[in-house]
Amino acid sequence: MSLGNKLDTLYRQVIMDHYKNPRNRGEMEDDDSLTVNMNNPTCGDRIQLQMKVEDGKISDAKFVGEGCSISMSSASMMTQAVKGLSVDDAMKLSEIFSNIMLGKEYDEEAFDLGDIEALQGVAKFPARIKCATLAWKAMEKGLNTEE
Fold first, then answer.
1. In 1, 56, 71, 73, which residue has its Cα 20 to 30 A from 65's Cα atom?
2. CA end-to-end distance (rounded Å), the chain
3. What ranges in the chain are assigned the alpha helix state H?
């Protein structure tokens, strides 16, 4: 098995792990959390993202929704990645993720993407990019209204 095939297999396993065992799935009890509802009408994916922003940092993030393995695993990875980040860093990470979905290179030294790297292969399937970016767009929308 070539390195490329091994990576594809590993990435598929990471995506399926986040889909079957989503991190940060659920709703926040707090009334003061940011709540954003978004959907992807082309495939039926929908998400409700909740974030708690304190002192310019995302202290918590949770989501509920339904959709394909790509959209739900991406939401799981995104909520895991942005917890503890400043709003600015979360927005930078979202920009990096958008660029990855467009097939662009990113500075691996600047940000450790962790499990998010597993979604790089989605760039090869343009119809699935909206699935992968749904949660990220929800986060951007929520943080942009926060300012």
1. 56
2. 49
3. 3-20, 69-82, 87-101, 126-146
Per-position pLDDT tens, the chain of length 147: 777 778 788 888 999 999 999 999 999 987 788 999 999 988 899 999 999 999 999 999 999 999 999 999 999 999 999 999 999 999 999 999 999 999 888 777 777 788 999 999 899 999 999 999 999 999 999 999 865
Closest CA to 75 of 120, 33, 138: 138
* Separation of alpha carbons 136 and 39, rounded Å: 12
Which token pair is 84? 């503890």
